[in-house]
Design goal:
The structure is a homodimer of 90-residue chains.
Chain A: E1 2-10, H1 17-28, E2 34-47, H2 53-67, E3 73-80
Antiparallel strand pairs in A: 1-2, 1-3
Protein name (chains A, B): Phosphoribosylformylglycinamidine synthase subunit PurS
Family (chains A, B): Belongs to the PurS family.
Keywords (chains A, B): ATP-binding, Cytoplasm, Ligase, Nucleotide-binding, Purine biosynthesis
Chain lengths: 90, 90
């Protein structure tokens, strides 16, 4: 089973009040030197079967239509490599 | 300015109703073959100055005390390389 990660973030030109709230709280909490914070969503999808080009295209469509609001959000789709990779003999 | 990404996900043993809601909706929407979905948070921090071991230790502390609830959530901290773009701009 492969894991595909979809990251959904507000577009840079869209105000991010959650991120701003975090960023403004940091100096009060003793953390200096963080110029900006943006907060978004991370989806981990466990995919049955091979994650080939067709599967990734399907997940891209899923993210575009369902996980992200593409009017205000950008998203990225990537396969997360397992910590231990096994290679089948040819 | 370097970007550090903090991913916060519910621990595997904690029920994730948001992820479950997404996963259950997928077949209705025509997406089969997704065995599980977990939904978490992604924070992008723009860090002033060099991201050295001390800065990363500080951000780790920040994530642990402020961004994640470590009773129910796990988090990872990583530096995002600026040169690598996952999605080509249109």
């Amino acid at each position: 089973m492969a894991r595909v990660v979809v990251d959904v973030m507000l577009k840079p030109e869209i105000l991010d009040p959650q991120g701003q709230a975090v960023q403004r709280a940091l100096p009060r909490l003793g953390f200096e030197g963080i110029a900006d914070v943006r907060q978004g969503k991370r989806f981990e999808l466990e995919v049955e079967g091979p994650v080939d080009a067709a599967a990734l295209r399907r997940i891209h469509e899923l993210a575009e239509t369902f996980l992200a609001n593409t009017v205000i959000e950008d998203f990225t789709v990537r396969v997360e490599e397992p910590a231990v990779s096994e290679e089948a003999p040819a």
